[in-house]
Amino acid sequence: MIQLTDLIVTVAQEADDALLRLAKAVEMSSQLNELGDHLIGHFVDEARRGGASWAEIGESLGVTKQAAQKRFVPKESPELGKPSTERYTQRSRRVIALARHHARFSERIGTEHLLLGLLDESAGLAAKTIAKLESGDGSTRIATLNRLDTEAKQRPEKQPYTSHCKKALELAVREALRMGHMFIGTEHILLGVLLETDGTAADVLHNTGVTHAAAATHIESVVNGPQQALPGA
């Protein structure tokens, strides 16, 4: 259990000025709220995988079935939702732009487009991780391209992200928080994509030998190695 005294000491150690301490406390409170949301989300996902109904989950949360679904089921939307992309690194923002580019003939932006964006951002840790783990050089890109819908569609003005894509990006934030990072790098997006096992990208990656366990091990070895990866991966 996190103790209030510990939080007060942590804030006090970060600044001498009372107003700076107040600003730090507000920032920490926001971070704790986000951590709390993702903590609950993690166990909601676990309960769903275990076969719990939304009615049962809602009862555990003290809300209605509909309220639980509204909070935890991503819906197709042109918006990424919370948190905003302001915590995304430059490379991660380019991945999102590249995903849009790959989806230019599609009605929606899916995890497969996100995966192609990760591969295109070749200097990112995600692309390097895939290159290290995939069964053959370029096999993931080829397999992903083979899964794209070849029939050109009329792209709507507000092109939505699929529910799987939105969930993958939500899980990317959760992975960053799990690793103690307050930025969202390409490596976190890759881990989120792998965790969204119902998405096309996760299926492709599993088939080319890239698993969440292997990717997480490699990424953490790079980030926690002698020369730690800087934000921007």
Automatic annotation (TrEMBL):
Keywords: Repeat. The keyword Repeat applies. Pfam families: Clp_N. Residues 85-225 form the Clp R domain. SUPFAM superfamilies: Double Clp-N motif. The keyword Transport does not apply. InterPro entries: Clp_N_dom_sf, Clp_R_N, CLPT1/2. This is Clp R domain-containing protein. It comes from Lentzea cavernae. The lineage of its organism: Bacteria, Bacillati, Actinomycetota, Actinomycetes, Pseudonocardiales.
